[in-house]
Amino acid sequence: MKKLLLIPASFKNSGIFAVLIGLAGLWMAETEGLINIYRILWPEQTLPDGSYPYPPEFWSVNSLLSYATTALIALGILLFLFTKEPDEFHYNARLEATQFAVISGLLGAVLLFGYFVLAPGYQLINTTTSILGTGVLAFGTTYVARYYYLTRRTD
Amino acid sequence: MKDYILENTLRVERARLQMTQAELAERVSVSRQAVISIENGKYVPSTILAIRLAAVFGKKVDDVFFLREE
Question: So where does this one cross the membrane (chain A) (predicted)?
Answer without folding.
Answer: 64-83, 95-118, 130-149
